[in-house]
Design goal:
- 64% of the residues lie in helices and 0% in strands.
- The protein has 256 residues and is mainly α.
- The protein folds into two domains: 107 residues; 148 residues, no CATH class.
- Helix 9 packs antiparallel against helix 11.
- The radius of gyration is 18 Å and the shape is globular.
- The protein starts with a helix and ends in a 5-residue tail after the last helix.
- It comes from Paracoccus amoyensis.
- InterPro entries: Isoprenoid_synthase_dom_sf, Squ/phyt_synthse.
Length: 256
């Protein structure tokens, strides 16, 4: 039960966050890698059964283990929980909310409107970014800034995944391009706010705040109606991803 298992999971399943972790100070990397590996597991848990009750039971297992860790109880030997305990200790109890936010996924229901999507993003991607940023020294007075950055980045990732989400019934109830455009504009506004307040955050937190490659042009095209994410989203090439990581590594610039 080693950190390498978490590293491989994040490297293969969440390459954007993995690339960002590599620019973090070495002492911070275990905490980030184990947090992101946990996020992958709890995001997958509701989809490991087609029966909502069984799906919720699988998710509850994670909720219970994290709650126990928060009470100082070491987890059973596990590929993710053991390294998480080593990196976070009793502070792993603060991660329970990440798992709780995934209960909605157990029902396999689409979102009724853009605001419902925003609420979900805030509780999942937004909270994940705040937990990571806190671990990298973000002060409490920067919470609103990180929340906006997490909202913008989270909406962009959600819109990129929308064709797949629609296919399994957890996207939008109605495939209206105007709803996608509204979400893109909300994401742009959130990222703009975070950029304007960036001085509240230490350079050390850059790895946690990275929104991913090609976010700004993608959102601009969706907002302008040039891309309909219900049908297709442009792929990110390996070159574009490497260039984005290089920019982050050289400048620590996580904002737009």
């Amino acid at each position: 039960m080693t950190l390498e298992t978490c590293i491989e999971a994040v490297r293969t399943q969440d390459p954007d966050r993995f690339g960002a972790v590599l620019i973090a100070p070495p002492s911070d990397r275990p905490a980030l890698i184990t947090l992101y590996a946990l996020n992958l597991e709890i995001a997958r848990a509701p989809f490991q059964s087609n029966e909502p009750m069984l799906a919720e039971m699988r998710l509850q297992w994670w909720v219970d283990r994290l709650a126990e860790m928060g009470q100082g109880v070491a987890p059973p030997l596990h590929d993710v929980l053991t390294p998480l305990w080593d990196a976070w200790g009793q502070n792993a109890g603060s991660l329970v909310e990440l798992a709780e936010a995934r209960r909605r996924d157990c029902a396999r229901e689409p979102f009724a409107d853009p605001q419902a999507v925003v609420d979900y993003i805030d509780a999942t991607a937004g909270l994940l970014m705040w937990l990571a940023a806190q671990r990298l020294g973000a002060p409490m007075n920067s919470h609103s800034v990180v929340a906006e950055q997490g909202r913008g980045a989270g909406i962009a990732k959600w819109l990129r995944a929308l064709p797949q989400l629609q296919a399994i019934g957890i996207g939008m109830a109605l495939s209206r391009p105007e709803d996608a455009a509204k979400l893109a504009k909300l994401a742009q506004e959130a990222l703009e706010y975070a950029a304007g307040q960036r001085k509240l955050l230490p350079k050390r937190a850059a790895a946690a705040l990275y929104p991913g490659p090609r976010v700004a042009p993608f959102l601009a095209q969706v907002a302008a109606g040039k891309i309909d994410p219900f049908k297709e989203t442009p792929a990110i090439t390996p070159f574009q991803r490497r260039a984005s990581f290089a920019r982050l590594a050289m400048t620590n610039r996580w904002w737009r």
